[in-house]
Amino acid sequence: MKHDRREFLKKAGFGALAGFGALAGVIPGLALEKTDAAAFSQKPEQGKTRWGMLIDTRACTEGCSRRVAACHHVHNVPDFGDPKNEVKWIWKSSYQEAFPTAPHQFPSRAVAEREVLTLCNHCAESPCTRACPTQATFNRRDGIVAMDYHRCIGCRFCMVACPYGSRSFNWLDPRPAIKEYYREYPTRERGVVEKCNFCSERLVKGLPPACVEACPENAITFGDLNDPGSLIRRMLSDNETMQRKPELGTLPSVFYII
Amino acid sequence: MKPSRILLITGGIVLAVVMMVSMFSTGGEADTSVTSPVSVQDSSACIASKKYMRSHHMKVLEEWRHDVVREGDRIHETPDGRVFEKSLNTCLSCHSQNRFFCIMCHQYANVKPTCWNCHLLPTETK
């Protein structure tokens, strides 16, 4: 039988692959991944929970300032007083700013004048996490788009990628611009991007997000979108709701009743 | 009283209780609560021996940072069953008494960790 070089290499390659495969089966230590199921018991599980928010803009009569202030206080968000350096986790937008692609040629006066609370949408298909070169921003297992400030290099790709303007850059040292420190949460430093974290540090303690708690009209509903029996899912099925820029396919987890 | 009558009354009470519970338990309270609340045990002992913490605290903190930020796992359980929240605040809740707790050794060893650029030292008041 004639063997040329190419045939020999092909057969040798397949042989080696089969050998390694068998070895990994015999000696479990050589298998690629070791999974300890017990270690995952208290962590968020992939696909089990997807946190979401429903904002009833009809109930926002007092102007939402209290919720913005509560959020910015418990997360040590700096206030530079200058729109150029503005850092914001949650803020007020007009209806047109929040829903620029929604039909609004002749809106009713109530809708045209309405102020909408806007924040990070914690998209299921988040463009920011794809843009991040260091994985400083990433999708948590419970649907929250989280920031790892330790890893952020301040390239601001995520700010360009986010279609909602939910991200802010610290052009200056934020510490002097914080009126009163909230001791249970760290500040950021100059040169990192920051945004809403859906209060993941409060959720783990069983508390609702700060904006939900601060809302006097109970206009914000927070809950698990993956649980068909949750209050937010029941409210979503009972009301007509909107997402911001749904045509982009980012699948936002923040919903609005207009 | 006849046994059948007792049975009827007990059944009525049970039915009433069940109806009351099902009527008043549909509130939204359960929605925002999370399955694993952190219960922090106040402790006079550290999570590991003094010797281990002296040499390996940076490894512990790095592991904690990864677990909390990336995995969302905030609960540390020591081999003897004590439970702590994985947070710098847990360390500082005991060690903040000594103002030079971090600084003393770090200055001697000439290491300059950047923890306090963002995390708040207990001595920083404002």
Summarize the structure.
The complex is a heterodimer of chains A (258) and B (126). By secondary structure, chain A is of the alpha+beta class. Chain A is built from 9 helices and 9 strands.
Walk me through what this model shows.
The complex is a heterodimer of chains A (258) and B (126). Chain A has 258 residues and is an alpha+beta fold. Chain A has two domains: 5-34; 51-257, 2-Layer Sandwich (Alpha-Beta Plaits), CATH 3.30.70.20. Chain A has nine helices and nine strands. Chain A has helices spanning 5-26, 65-74, 95-98, 109-112, 127-131, 157-161, 200-203, 210-214, 231-238, and strands at 51-56, 90-94, 115-119, 137-139, 145-147, 168-169, 193-194, 220-224, 254-257. In chain A, the strands form four sheets. In chain A, strands 8-1-9 form a three-stranded mixed beta sheet, with helices on one face. Chain A has a two-stranded antiparallel ribbon with strand order 2-3. In chain A, β4 (137-139) and β5 form a beta hairpin. The longest helix of chain A is centred in the first third of the chain and has 22 residues, at 5-26. Chain A is globular. Chain B is mainly alpha-helical and 126 residues long. Chain B has a domain at 50-118. A two-stranded antiparallel sheet of chain B has the order 1-2. The longest helix of chain B has 22 residues, at 3-24. Chain B is elongated and about 90 Å long. Chain B starts with a helix and ends in an 8-residue tail after the last helix.
